[in-house]
Amino acid sequence: MTDETILEILSRHLDGDLNADEEVALSARLDAEPVLGNELETMRRIRRSVAALASSEQLPPELDSLVDPLLRGKPEPIAFRSWARWLATAAAVVLGATVIIEVNRRNPGPSIESMAKLRKQGHPAEPTERFTLAPLPTSSLPVEQQPLGASDRLLASPAPDIELDDPVALEVLGPLEEGEVQTVDDQKISGGLVDEILPMGSAAAEDKGAKKGESLRTTVPGEKDDLDHAPQHKESDGALEGGRGAALQSWAASPPMGQAQLFVFVNGKSAWRDFTPPATCKAGRYSVRIVVAGGAVREARPVGGAASAAPSQRLCAAGLILDLEIDEVADGEYPAEIVVKPRGSGQ
Amino acid sequence: MWQTGFVDFDLVYERFRLPVWRLARRLTTSEEEALDTTQEIFLRVWRGLPGFRGEAKLSTWVFQIAWNYLRAHRRKMGRKHQIIGENINAAQDLVESAVDTGPDPERRARATQLLDRIEVALKRLPEHYRVVVWLRDGEDLSYQEIADALDVPIGTVRSRLARARGALKEMVES
């Protein structure tokens, strides 16, 4: 029997782990070998000492305070719980997916049937992809002649230094509401001319001005002192007389018939011409100052106060008359007015 | 009283705080370290208690948690285990200075000294041996409970316990 074997038997004997046969065998050996008895006694003493050591151990008072949060059932910090982080992540993903699905369910795109129905009714089919950017519309005109481009140039240029004789009169020259603009046919039916599409010098315009108040002063053809928009330079009394063609007409010659008109005020006189707008602007009346050179409008700057249309629409209207021929007008800068009729009106 | 699973944490803590503390004290090098590890052990007990269904004995389950954490802690701290027989001369010096002769007061003094020596000798045991002898002699766990707590066969418990006791005897007697 090796030392290790007898050591284990002695150890098990101390713990009462030996069976009856092993106990008998050990007793016989202990009787025969007193040294084994001494070893057993030493082991027993050590065993008791270890137990005594355990009994003498005192619990540190700090331990209770350290474990106190657990005793009070306080949840541990979230950082401790990895499962909680995973749960929160999963919940966020599920919530996000639910919101997306719900939004799509409430706002479904056009069905194939509805699109086919619209197409049958003559409506253009909706684009299949929402929010798809379409290319900007292009113009057949050269870049330098495109009205929108001209407006951009005007915007980029320094602000015009215009000193008006009677700014109040300009404030009332804002664009008309669409409902106020009447067509030529309407005028004929009603048996009179409607001031909204008349040049400022017309009698009807005077009537409208009278309704709006004394500040509305319109020019009357032939009244030199009544010009609201005096040209700043290069203007002469003979500006209209020296015309080189028949593009501009006097008011008395014929009433305006076209989709749009340009009224030019030259030294107390007004003249106008029909023209077809190269682009679409909101219907209304727009006050501008124009620069005439070589028998055509080379520059147009919108003027007007708060009552006028939105700046974008004023620029749009100003762009309509660029390079419009007005042969009768001498080179110079003049106040003018653009009248844009609603679509479908005029000729 | 706050309950978790089938067992109240309060009761578990009340029952096992001292045994766990003692085991931590045996397997760490300082009281502060023992305090920290005891707290961590009970944190793990608190976490695991809702899942405890009583398949194992509660003491076995708690000591298993304690042992696993302390072993991992020791590994993490990078401390090298001491081998049986190492520094045996220092242990012999301790034993030689404690001769069991004289009147009773002296014997009591020697007994107290013996406890100190036993504690020193225990610290020199490798922890696999130390934990077995401590759970058996210090906490009075059965072989089977020790085997379950340490997740080793019961034969291993027997052999480790015998070797540990032999090493302690050698250190104390020599």
Please provide the ordered H/E string of secondary-structure elements of chain A.
Answer: HHHHHHHHHHEEEEEHE
Percent in strands of chain A? 5-15%
Low-confidence stretches of chain B: 1-5, 80-102
Approximate shape of chain A: rod-shaped
Our count of helices of chain B gives 8
Element layout with pairings:
The complex is a heterodimer of chains A (347) and B (174).
Chain A: H1 3-15, H2 20-32, H3 34-56, H4 62-71, H5 82-106, H6 112-120, H7 147-156, H8 167-171, H9 184-190, H10 203-212, E1 249-250, E2 260-266, E3 269-275, E4 284-293, E5 296-302, H11 311-320, E6 332-340
Antiparallel strand pairs in A: 1-3, 2-3, 2-6, 4-5, 4-6
Helix pairs in contact in A: 2-3, 7-11
Chain B: E1 3-4, E2 7-8, H1 9-27, H2 31-48, H3 58-77, H4 88-96, H5 104-124, H6 127-138, H7 143-150, H8 154-173
Antiparallel strand pairs in B: 1-2
Please describe what this structure looks like.
The complex is a heterodimer of chains A (about 350) and B (about 170). Chain A contains 11 helices and 6 strands. Helix content of chain A is about 40%, strand content about 10%. The model of chain A is unreliable at about 165-175 and about 180-245 (pLDDT under 50). The longest helix of chain A has 25 residues, at about 80-105. By secondary structure, chain A is of the alpha+beta class. In chain B, α1 (about 10-25) packs antiparallel against α2 and α1 packs across α3 (about 60-75). The longest helix of chain B has 21 residues, at about 105-125. The interface of A and B includes residues 10, 47 and 51 of A.
